[in-house]
Amino acid sequence: PFAATYYGGGATFDDVNSTVINLPYESTFDADITLGNALGSITGMIYDEANDPLDTVMVWAYDQTGHIVSAGLSGVDLANESPLESGFYQVGGLHSGNYYVRTFSLYATIAGFEEQVSGKEEFDPLSLLGLLMGGELELEFYRDEWYNNVLIELPYLENISGMILPLILAGPLSEVSLFPFYALPTAGASLVSVTDPNSTPGIDFHLSTIDFKDLLVGVEKQPSMALPEKFALQQNYPNPVYPTGNLLHTVITYQLPVAMEVKVEIFNILGQKVVTLYDGFQDVGTHRVIWNGLDEKGEKVSSGIYFYSLRSKTGITQMKKMIVLR
Questions:
Q1: What pLDDT shows up at residue 125?
Q2: CB under 8 Å, gap of 24 or more: what pairs does 112-119 form?
Q3: Among 28, 131, 215, 286, which is least packed, fewest CB within 10 Å?
């Protein structure tokens, strides 16, 4: 099978053969890549907390710089598009080396939900939320892990109604915008050694479930959580921002140590304001706004680099960069 290959022939991000392309603004470059081959693989089982096999969970292998190398899907052979033993996954196309491995269970969450609503009428986010809260539909989330038994923080689970439900309604493969193409492992994660052309078996995961209603209440169920100590703007998530169907959005999170008047704005690379996301008074705490990729006129912005700022009426300003890819 083919293996991950960088321009220049490198097998990993930090391979000496991986070549950096210096691209001037508004220019193009033909970067032809001849895919390498590798037969090494990582295999294992995905189980739920009842120890039952769990299908359609993605498993990702990363090099030691945090860049994706290959992926597998429990219950499915991605290379041949054929079924596998329930819960069994295989991450193939790996050269000899050491890899970090993690799960991405949102794929299973959305696949399971789509089975429930197949052939039914379309929902809007509000009616969907009502059906979920009333128990007429189920949305099962799992706690993702790095191998071996190291839990992963999932920022998107902090905004179920504003982020996950719109993604679900966007249709098949809407979760691509949240794919962890780059991810640094959590402390304690174990490396998995692969020797091409052999397989490294027994890399199993046991994923616990998360109650949907607990996710909806979020911070309110954690009274011990400390209030922010400083004015802070976080990196948006996801970034880069990818469209899924007709949907494009990213979440901007920020902390306020005291109640104050704030403004959150998006600017293009020329410093021109694109849109104001929030302008008003907010209490002390952590806040989030969602940008849907539209400007003040409601028109889609083009691909490129954008900046977003958090500014207080007292003159405190923080700014960060994001990338939009259409």
A1: 53
A2: 112/56, 112/138, 112/139, 112/140, 113/137, 113/138, 113/139, 113/168, 114/168, 114/172
A3: 28
Radius of gyration of the chain from Cα atoms?
A: 21
- What pLDDT does 220 receive? 37
* pLDDT value of position 100: 95
Q: Which of 163, 184, 214 is the last residue of a domain?
A: 214
- Dihedral through CA 247, CA 235, CA 226, CA 286, nearest 10? -40
Picking from 157, 184, 214, the residue at the C-terminal end of a domain is 214
What is the model's pLDDT at position 162?
A: 54
Cα(91)–Cα(80) distance, integer angstroms: 13
So what's the pLDDT on residue 219?
37
Looking at the fold, whether 252 and 182 belong to one and the same domain comes out as no
Can you give the pLDDT at residue 118? 60
Paired tokens of 232: 């802070």
CA-based nearest residue to 64, from 34, 98, 30, 112: 98
- Euclidean distance between CA atoms 263 and 62, whole angstroms: 38
In whole angstroms, give the CA distance from residue 48 to residue 100. Answer: 21
Per the structure, the complete domain to which residue 254 belongs is given by: 232-324
Give the CATH number for residue 289: 2.60.40.4070
Answer yes or no: is 187 within a domain: yes
183-222 pLDDT, tens digit per residue, is 888 888 999 999 999 999 999 999 988 766 656 544 333 3
Q: What is the pLDDT of residue 94?
A: 95
Positions of the chain with pLDDT under 70: 113-138, 154-178, 211-226, 243-248
Task: Please list, in sequence order, all residues whose beta carbon lies within 8 angstroms of the beta carbon of residue 68, skipping any fewer than 6 positions away.
Answer: 4, 60, 61, 62, 180, 181, 182, 183
Under 8 Å between Cβ of 206 and 51:
yes
| Res 187: pLDDT | 83
Determine if the peptide bond prior to 148 is cis (ω within 30°).
yes
